[in-house]
Amino acid sequence: MTPQLQQAIRLLQLSTIELQTEIQEALESNPLLESQEDHADEAVDAADSSEDKYNDSADNETAGSANPQNQDNNQANESTNNTRDQDINLEGQENIPDELPVDSVWEDVYDNIPSYTSAARDPDAREYEVQDGNGETLRESLMWQLGMLRLSETDATIARAVIDSIDDNGYFAGNIEEIHNSINLDSELEFEEIEAVLRLVQSFEPSGVGARDPQESILIQLRQYDPDTPWLEKAVMLAENHMNLLVNHDHNQLLRRMKISKDELQEVVKLIRSMNPRPGSQMANSRTEYIIPDVYVKKVKGVWRVELNPDASPRLRINPYYASLIRRADSSKDNTYLKNQLQEARWFLKSLHSRSETLLKVATSIVKHQQGFLERGEEAMKALVLHDVAEEVSMHESTISRVTTRKYMHTPQGIYELKYFFSSHVSTASGGEASSTAIRALIKKLVESEIIAKPLSDSKLASLLGDQGINVARRTVAKYREAMRIPPSNERKRLI
User: For residues 367 and 359, what is the distance between their CA atoms, to the nearest angstrom?
Assistant: First the structure.
């Protein structure tokens, strides 16, 4: 492949954010490239500056002609103000030391020194300074709570070791003996002391953190409730002694063991299910990733329109000034450099244009096939494979695969990756095809509407899909159900 083709393929498979980084690097490395937006802004600023100078000049001429003494008065006032400013500066410098203490800034020593940062000019801007898209992690939250306590050095070291052993779900995944051996601060350190510090960490937020398993986490959360909470005592009894029966949905055995009625058991189970079995999951442990749609889809006068996102990439052009410096017959080093940069700039612009055209063609083809999804949602998704779109736009399947990876479409149903619209097919009773995405949506809808005391089995789900003209085997239903992390019918059975 030629270098130009390699560059076009590389740009084609970049995401929008990666493309913006690539464009910025090209702007910084190639003087023949420039952003049209920046050039337009400079032209507007220059026009405004010229207009301001013209207005100021006109005002000064008018003021001077109206009162000839104004110039003398202005000069006198300016001289007085300058002298006054010098006095103030001299007074302020009397107590300023030549050097500041280490690790300090002027604002730490002198409160009356004005700040000229953007945050100081705009009070509302301060709240946006530290917002970088990162949420507080579970470990950071626990460490902050630990710092609010007054503990001995030994207990603080144990607590840090305990926090380091807590996983993302909020469970203590470490070992008391390992912590005892790793600390080794005091030969007389007892295991009971480590257990006591662990119980202290278990009192931190989020409630239930630091438990060794879901049962202990639920117990910790229940014991932090108000003692007067209805059904709390029975809920603690169930969580301590009969959790395995609840997990296995053995409700008859629970009724006999706890000696309560079915209605009372429902209230107890309702309270337990209100607990969070993975308390750490509510904390952010990863960097927030932002999605910039590459294309927008909207319905205009009954017709679906596809448009490229103009903000996805800046508009570029070749700098006319540098291009005018290139001389055809000149073979000097500088002229050769400009020629090479001009050729690279043209290739880059052509590759960007090719990427945009390909993306628009593929997105338009997808919208043509998936209009039912745009109007009615997942249940109306049609079966579609890369080969179908490749034939329609006269491109290779590998090109379609590149252009649909990490590219996103903004639709009335939400923002989706272009690859989302491709799915395998299943034969229907009428001889047609049904998308696997639509089948999963129908299975999910049937499960959500089932009676929780009598959940639908995989065979029943297959039968209900057959009634809608979709012929799927029980094994296929089980595969789709497991892919959506929906438990089998015996585990979905509940009292409430």
Answer: 12
Which pTM value belongs to this model? 0.59
Tokens standing for 235?
């809920």
Amino acid at 263: D
> Beta strand pairing status for 303-308 and 295-300?
antiparallel
The amino acid present at 248, given as its one-letter code, is: N
CA distance 420 to 416: 6
Query: Before 206, cis peptide (omega within 30)?
Result: yes
Report the mean per-residue pLDDT for the chain.
78
Locate 370 and state its tokens.
């998936």
Give the span between the Cα atoms of 326 and 346, in whole angstroms.
15
Encoded tokens for 305: 């329109």
Contact present, 275 and 218 (Cβ < 8 Å): yes
Asked whether the predicted pLDDT for residue 434 surpasses 70, the reply is yes
Task: Give me 335's structure tokens.
Answer: 């002229």
**Owner of token pair 């301060």:** 126
The predicted-structure confidence for 441-466, as pLDDT tens digits, reads as follows 999 999 988 887 788 899 999 899 88
CA distance 461 to 474: 8
Burial of 421 (0-12, 13-18, 19+ CB in 10 A): buried
- Alpha carbon of 347 to those of 9, 32, 317, 343, 419: distances in Å? 12, 12, 12, 6, 28
Query: Is residue 290 scored above 70 in pLDDT?
Result: yes
pLDDT tens-place string over residues 3-38 = 878 888 888 888 888 888 899 999 999 999 998 765
